[in-house]
Amino acid sequence: MSDRLDHGLQSGIAEMPVVAVVIPCYRVTQHIVDVIERIGPECQQIYVVDDCCPDNSGEYVRTHCTDSRVRILRNQRNLGVGGAVMAGYEAALKGGADILVKIDGDGQMPPELLRRFVAPILSGVADYTKGNRFYDLSMVRSMPTLRLLGNAALSFMSKFSSGYWDVFDPTNGYTAIHRRVAAHLPLDRISRRYFFESDMLFRLNTLRAMVVDVPMAARYNDEVSNLKISRIFGEFFWGHARNFAKRIFYNYFLRDLSAASLQLVLGALLMGAGATYGLLKWFFNPGNPATAGTVMLAALPIMLGLQLVLAFLMWDMQSVPRMPVHPRLPDEPDVVNHPPHPSGDSLE
């Protein structure tokens, strides 16, 4: 991909893929201009989304940045980081971008890594790429302990809800997506808050899109993160539980019925029956020792059910999408089938 980009730079923009960077802005005026200046020539469009920032980030960029690639969007009300990114996606799709890259404006995501995120998509081995700060264990030491543990827990829950068992660090916001895949996502239904990166993975799985992790270092300098693990853990837990139930229903009962569907149903029924029988016997016969037959009648269905559920999980882990879907999706460069966010207005 690097050769392809370099060739495009030498032979003209017409032969280059159009790469757009979306930067949601909320209280990042201290770093945003530096982030924009570090974005290389492989990017042709930069969408700065002022999410009703108290610091008036959009006007600040317009005043202090002369980069001709910059287009400034301003939301009339705060939509949250997810809503800001979706507004940027819609604008980039209408602007004809081929690859949409999302970078935060606080300086934690090095713009110099952009080529790494675009490369797998252009080479046809991915539909969506995302950063993974846990890939190099020697670099994880720079991550605060609470954030490290919180991200590990959220990553585990994300594997269940999204079905991407081979990706990690779901809250990492350094991402890139092919325009055809983005155009087929329900942008107006994706979470507008911090859960949106995890919600994106769930939505991508419904398209059977291929997701690839891109190793990157964890950087923590003087930036102030608005994401507090302790504050959003409950929201994430219920969001993952909802998406897990929806994904299982979509993939194993609505779209298709397979042996895994039967394993899940029978396993859940056996475990429930065994647990119910054991609890009833314990409740109605307090203090009386259970016979061997009673124990077996309760334990055997639970053990068989557990085996079936584990077999289902193995099936689910092996069904992670392994082939990019964007070559098979229709290309609709001038049509976005989702209503725009009503509060997103362009300043320029």
Automatic annotation (TrEMBL):
Q: Which residues form a coiled coil?
A: none
The keyword Membrane belongs to this UniProt entry's keyword annotation: yes
**InterPro entries noted in UniProt:** Glyco_trans_2-like, Glycosyltransferase_2, Nucleotide-diphossugar_trans
Q: Which CDD domains match?
A: DPM_DPG-synthase_like (cd04179)
Entry keyword set = Membrane, Transmembrane, Transmembrane helix
Where do the record's region annotations for Disordered lie?
328-348
UniProt keyword Transmembrane, yes or no = yes
Annotated membrane-spanning segments are 257-280, 292-315
Under the heading Pfam families, the entry gives: Glycos_transf_2 (PF00535)
Superkingdom as given in the UniProt entry: Bacteria
Q: Which residues form the Glycosyltransferase 2-like domain?
A: 21-182
Note the PANTHER family from the entry. RFBJ PROTEIN (PTHR48090:SF7), UNDECAPRENYL-PHOSPHATE 4-DEOXY-4-FORMAMIDO-L-ARABINOSE TRANSFERASE-RELATED (PTHR48090)
**What is the recorded name of this protein?**
Glycosyltransferase family 2 protein
Organism source for this protein?
Lysobacter koreensis
Lineage, opening ranks: Bacteria, Pseudomonadati, Pseudomonadota, Gammaproteobacteria, Lysobacterales
